[in-house]
Amino acid sequence: MSDATYSALRDASGEPMKKNLVRRAVVLTFRKSLEISVKNLQVRFLRSLITIGSLVLATAFLSFVLVNLNVAAGLMALGGEDAAVMLTRAGFDIDEQARTVSMSPKERWIIILSLLVCAVGIVNAQLMAVTERFREIGIMKCLGALDSMILRLFMLEATMQGLTGATLGAVFGFLFSMAVNSLRFGTQVWTTLPWSAAGLSLLIAVGVGAVLSLVGVLYPAYVAARMRPVMALKAEH
């Protein structure tokens, strides 16, 4: 806005509004954005569970595969050729000369497909959430909310959902992997496991889940941010 436009705006008492006051009126602090995002998730708890559930499943499988590799690497480092034979019979892809364990092509494709399915589910759930909130978004924009504010709210919600679902999935995948390998190879897997590598695997799984949640919400958030207030208020649900 130009200075002439600001001088034309008047407050309730009829006095011209100051330029800095208008700017302050449209600012939404990060703390307030976080509060609004938390309340939105609480109101739409069941809808949030769909996104979180899909993230838990995808991240748990990724964590399970990565921790399996860590367990196999620990057994290889301790057991030598006997461990290599045992791991090969268990279905691991073993390079005996390099004494390394790698992920099979089949596992890679399954992980990629599971993450793609998860991403599609997140986009679908977020688009449905945007449709349900047409009127709410229109009211917020009529009250002065900027496109960046709407985008920030959706991104904050996606971040909280992503971190929650990815963390739960990583933990579940780790526990399930350790339980399965304990049954196959005995309790020694707990002592031979390279914990630093396992921790890195969990961080990778959480990071992938969080990024997946953010990527899945980008398009729905853009649609919500670019929505015209009049069209949002006129929308029927």
UniProtKB/TrEMBL annotation:
Pfam families assigned: FtsX
Membrane disposition: Multi-pass membrane protein
Origin: domain of life: Bacteria
Cell compartments where the protein resides: Cell membrane
Keyword Oxidoreductase: no
UniProt entry keywords in alphabetical sequence: Cell membrane, Membrane, Transmembrane, Transmembrane helix
Main location: membrane
GO molecular-function term, one example from the UniProt record: transmembrane transporter activity
Residues annotated as transmembrane: 49-69, 109-130, 151-180, 200-225
ABC3 transporter permease C-terminal domain sequence ranges: 110-228
A GO CC annotation given for this chain: plasma membrane
Family: Belongs to the ABC-4 integral membrane protein family.
Protein's name according to its UniProt entry: FtsX-like permease family protein
Species in which this protein is naturally found: Desulfonatronum thiosulfatophilum
